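**Backbone description:**
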Amino acid sequence: MAKLGVLDRPAEPRSAAKDKAAEVLMTAADLMYHNGFDATSMKDIAKAVNLTKAGLYYYTKGKHDLLYKIISFAMDCLERDIIKPSEEIGEAEERLQFIIQAHLKSIFESGGAITILTEEIGKLSPTHRRNIIVRERRYLDLVRVTLEELKKTGRLRDLDETIATLNMFASILGIVRWYDAKGRFGSDGVAAETSRFIISGLLYDKKSKT
């Protein structure tokens, strides 16, 4: 990683620096999630990761740069774990099932902080915002095209594919706002029921088609 600020200590070994960069990113995401982006200061982040403010600037140009890195990381995960694997699935319904289940799994594994912070895209610079929008559109188009394929085979309910795609994402991402890992609902049960809820709302039952 390129040096972005003044360091008052020797450069860390590459692997250690990479681990620390990941810690900075995830800690910043957690603080911004719980305290809000505007209320989180670079001083707060530095203290949480046991760095001086000067040391923190080794890993980032500033808070808005951190936000971009966090959202970019979220998109990297989506592309690696959901988009690319699903593009290899030829059958539309199987592809849709995979997308839903993989996205739910990613939310439970990440804890939701990164997912929520993707909503702060308006705080990014115009260039960074355009970059993220292009990447988000690829995901939206993947689901929309999948639903178009299902409509051609008579499996999709009488729905507009774009609106249905946005509603599907709203159902998945909405879990972050109410799910409590310490509550009475386990993640596996929530994932299974949410998947059934989305699929039943999108597709006709194979037997009844009603």
Summary: Residues 68-202 form a domain with the Tetracycline Repressor; domain 2 fold (CATH 1.10.357.10). The CA atoms of residues 82 and 99 lie 6 Å apart.
